[in-house]
Amino acid sequence: MKSENFETIAIRTQLERSLHKEHSAPLYLTSSYKFDDAEEMRALFANEKEGNVYSRYSNPNTSEFIEKMCLLEGAEDGFATATGMAAIFTTFGAFLKNGDHIISSRSVFGSTHQLLTNVFSKWGVTFDYADLDKPEDWEGLIKPNTKMIFVETPSNPGIDIIDLAFLGNLAKKHNQLLVVDNCFATPYLQQPLALGAHISIHSATKYIDGQGRVLGGIILGRKDLITEVMNFARHSGPSLSPFNAWILSKSLETLAVRMDRHCENALKVAEYLESHPKIKLVKYPFLPSHPQYEIAKKQMKQGGGIVTIVVQGGAEGASKFMDRLKMFSISANLADTRSIATHPATSTHSKLTEAERNIVGIEQGSIRLSIGLEHINDILADIEQALA
């Protein structure tokens, strides 16, 4: 039965059943595959025939995960990687060469910042940062050698938003490759490819898994672009393991219901904290006070599960708040069933200078709250007692 509904696609898309007629897709823990004859082996390696030749290239479990993600995000093809950062590195590596230039949102994950400043810079790739809240500046940064526009929206951890339709039109006008890190939104809340992006990237470690168990990443887009990604990845080897792919594919079956609860809880937390005297600032896409609230409402189904706050008292105030939390976990991860508090300035974004953090709104008092699936009364009670 064909369906256009997200939940049904996520649950009912799976591998063809084997002769054992299993209800749930089995694990294919194999590194290689048998060929019927020499001609089949030749045809598969020559890409004249589709099939599995080696699990560094493809595996039935990764193929199922990719197929689901393509259907959910409206992509023609995809490639699954071992981590979210492997997905970003592989995308950069597949399309950028010595002499190329990239425009990136200034608000990016700390490791993405390291790739731009310390890794690809050694290979002759230059970059300029642009601010998500200043879309009027983006076009002026485009150079003759600009190859790619890269953006996180919502950003980590500032929760800044940019109009993806605007960036899509800008990329089309200047023949740029628009790459969007869609990790915080997931395909359930936002679909960048429908808004003009060419590539959508996820750290599947986060909401796709959603339970803090496995690492993974995925790159989604047009078939011709993913072919370039595959050609690079075949030799650099960032492949997702079959076991992790199996976990992630099963996790997609509950993504919609999990995101509904994450978003519901996060909005209530944001509304509660916005009027709290010990909170200097609250950032959440679906709060009317968010600077890009109207854009978020236009391109996102709901506001996501991340609330970023600035506690009064700077580093000391943030440390006191986190140390007094009883139920929240203190962790560098996010998007778990369990609520998590992170201090970006000393963890995920510690490699940025103080000036670089200040530019993107990461203060010493900034805390990223990943709101979990616990009962909202317990989440609010823990926050309330920690702020008392």
UniProtKB/TrEMBL annotation:
The modification N6-(pyridoxal phosphate)lysine is found at K206. Its cofactor is pyridoxal 5'-phosphate. CDD domains: CGS_like. One of its GO terms (cellular component) is cytoplasm. Keywords: Amino-acid biosynthesis, Methionine biosynthesis, Pyridoxal phosphate, Transferase. Pathway: Amino-acid biosynthesis; L-methionine biosynthesis via de novo pathway; L-homocysteine from O-succinyl-L-homoserine: step 1/1. Its EC number is 2.5.1.-. Homotetramer. This is O-succinylhomoserine sulfhydrylase. It comes from Pedobacter yonginense.
